[in-house]
Write a structure and sequence with these properties.
This protein is 62% helix and 7% strand. It is built from 21 helices and 7 strands.
């Protein structure tokens, strides 16, 4: 497939317009997306050194910095995803061309431009699209020419991009292993490999020993992600079922035709290259295989509750391998366009039939808009609010009604009883928002020492209730 800057940037423009159109027509589903958006907005209002929680710190910080330019909490995080998701398309073309040649790079970028899971994550408040962008950027800079005056710039750029990626998603921590190994053995620069590892490791080390409490805490964080599936019917499954889930989910996201072609491309990538080319392709294959391994591990622990976007990297890294298997057929433009269209079409059909979670909804629930308006009128500034999970609808509230980070808590399986009791004692919330079906969470609130009172207002299935707390202990 002949390539040109005009063709590539035209593809990037089409990718950006598609993602923008999807963003304008949708909102985030309740849950992680609105929570990411709210935390970033709250960070902007009260900047802090993020060193707690299970989410890595740069998600909160990067959304907060985005909010400096986009002064709407419903859009700050989404614009960050839109910009990085769109920029990923030409970056991906350059990176894949560096490893597999320009025809494969352009074809893979075209497939990514229309990949449903990447399109929708690029229109959401989740940080998956920014994390993928910075991971690919670190790889691209790491594969830049290793000689000449520009080498220090590329080296430091690799460390910076990799460091940002490591602060966004745990999957990016594989950069600490693979980039220094590539620098040491493919580029034969062991001193640079040690320095690169030293530059990439501060954030993972800081987070492991502060937020997670040490290496055992890192494993506990993985277990928490794995075990959270039990709340929605997930459970650990046998090896064979885990493999089926992992490959099935990846096939749906990447396309059923893409995955077997990628397997063929993997064999070709390792068997048909010179010494230098083999090192670059081995790096790519290593990323793909490790991404597949993570998908398998999570599928084994969560079973049917596997979260679709966990397979994003495995799906994306499969694309150039699939087109590498078709590389002899990409020389003629019409045939190349038809092959790309066939793979894109198969992915679209698989997405339509299998219906993976794409993390976007049509509109905000009207009861949330009504509730936010009620809070605007009735809630005194600084009054704390307690929510029950309520299908994660409360995650929308801070996007409509201004609340600081410490103004509210959502009682779910993620909030420990000790944290709930501490919040009740410290902030003494007077308002409880719940709905039918959250009786188990109400029982936890009662056990923590608070008593739900009468109904103050109703918005759809949501109830606003008084929350009665015992008087503060007398001062001795």
């Amino acid at each position: 497939m002949p390539t040109s800057p005009t063709l590539l940037w035209g593809l990037a423009f089409a990718a950006g317009m598609l993602r923008l159109a999807v963003a304008l027509a949708t909102v985030d589903v309740p849950g992680d997306g609105p929570t990411r958006a709210a935390l970033g907005w709250q960070w902007l209002q009260e900047p802090r050194l993020v060193r707690d929680g299970s989410w890595l710190p740069f998600g909160e910080i990067s959304v907060g910095l985005s909010a400096l330019l986009v002064r709407d909490p419903k859009w700050a995080a989404r614009v960050l995803s839109l910009v990085t998701g769109t920029a990923t398309v030409p970056l991906f073309a350059s990176l894949a061309a560096c490893v597999f040649g320009p025809a494969v790079g352009l074809a893979a970028a075209a497939a990514l431009a229309f990949l449903p899971i990447h399109v929708t994550l690029s229109a959401s408040s989740l940080v998956d699209a920014p994390a993928l962008f910075f991971t690919l950027l670190a790889l691209r800079l790491g594969l830049a020419p290793s000689d000449g005056r520009s080498r220090p710039v590329f080296f430091l750029g690799t460390a910076l991009a990799g460091g940002i990626a490591c602060g966004l998603r745990y999957e990016a921590w594989v950069l600490l292993l693979l980039l220094p190994l590539h620098r040491a053995f493919a580029r034969r620069r062991p001193a640079e490999a040690v320095l690169l590892f030293a530059l990439l490791s501060p954030l993972p080390l800081f987070w492991t020993f502060t937020a997670l409490g040490g290496p055992s805490g890192l494993y506990a964080a993985f277990r928490k992600v794995a075990e959270s599936g039990a709340s929605i019917g997930g459970q650990a499954v046998p090896l064979g079922e885990a493999v089926a889930i992992a490959l099935g989910e990846t096939a749906v996201l990447a396309g059923p035709a893409t995955l077997p072609l990628a397997a063929c491309g993997l064999l070709l990538a390792l068997g048909t290259a010179g010494k230098a080319e083999a090192a670059e392709r081995l790096l790519w294959v290593s990323f793909w295989l490790l991404a597949l391994l993570l998908v398998f591990l999570l599928a084994r622990e969560r079973g049917p509750s596997f979260v679709d976007r966990y397979a994003l990297s495995a799906a994306v890294f499969a694309l150039p391998l699939a087109f590498w298997a078709l590389e002899p057929l990409l020389g003629e433009r019409t045939r190349a366009v038809l092959l790309v269209a066939a793979l894109v079409g198969s992915t679209g059909i698989a997405t339509w039939i299998a219906r993976p979670e794409l993390y976007l909804a049509r509109r905000f629930p009207p009861e949330i808009v009504g509730l936010a308006g009620w809070l605007d009128e009735k809630r005194a500034p600084g009054t704390a609010v307690l929510f029950t999970r309520a299908g994660w609808l409360p995650t929308y509230v801070p996007l409509f009604h201004s609340m600081r980070r410490d103004d509210y808590r959502i009682v779910s399986w993620y909030l420990q009883d000790a944290a709930l009791r501490a919040f009740l004692v410290r902030r003494r919330p007077q308002i409880l928002i719940t709905r039918e079906g959250d009786e188990a969470f109400l029982a936890r609130i009662r056990a923590a020492g608070a008593e739900p009172g009468g109904v103050l207002a109703r918005f759809g299935k949501l109830e606003v209730r008084e929350l009665r707390l015992p008087g503060p202990p007398p001062r001795g």
